[in-house]
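Discussion board: Methods & Data

I've been asked by a reviewer to show the raw model output for two of the constructs in my manuscript, not just the figures. I'm not sure how much to include, so I'm pasting the format here to get opinions. Each protein appears as its amino acid sequence followed by a line of discrete structure tokens. Is this the kind of thing reviewers expect to see in a supplement, or should I convert it first? Here is construct A:
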Amino acid sequence: MHEFMLIFRHEDGKKVASPEQIQVWMQQTMDWIGGIAAQNKFIAGNGLLFDDALVVHHNKVVTNGPFGDIKETLAGYVMVKAESAEEAAEFAKGCPVLQGEGNTVEVRRIVTGDGVH
């Protein structure tokens, strides 16, 4: 069994959703995660906010950002257990983030201190 991170990328970060739509998405996300957890394959996950976001550059300069109005933004992640990247991608296919046009879920295998996990 391996660990994978499913990274949520939004291309529609500048669109403003109503509080009602946010509630619907949150419920859909909780249901989706619940389905993965029911298989004992959910590890962890969180959304990412833009408030107080900073970027540290190679020259150690710190700037504000990233901002929600850029074309593509990282919105959050979920970590899952799966036998393969293909199984993890099957989990990703059910992610409510994909309801937004242009949004994607990137599937990446996690490397641990003792090698690839």
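Construct B, same format:
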Amino acid sequence: MCLALPGKIIEIQGKMGIIEMMGVRREVSLELIKDYKAGDYVLVHAGCAITKVDEEEAIKTIELFSEIREMENG
């Protein structure tokens, strides 16, 4: 099974972007998506943004992952 995590585009450098995912910033490829800008939310898998996602849905997903992490560390 593959898992893609939502993240927010913080900075764009050509076809690469700095994405913030749950407090961690990573450089990812933006080559697979179109019409992106800083502030957009994307799903990231294996170092690539694979699709843009709705901000509300991205935030809900991030909150769910945070709850799971808290339960595991609980």
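Answer (T.O., handling editor elsewhere):
This is acceptable in a supplement if you add a one-line summary per construct. For B, something like: The CA atoms of residues 24 and 65 lie 14 Å apart.
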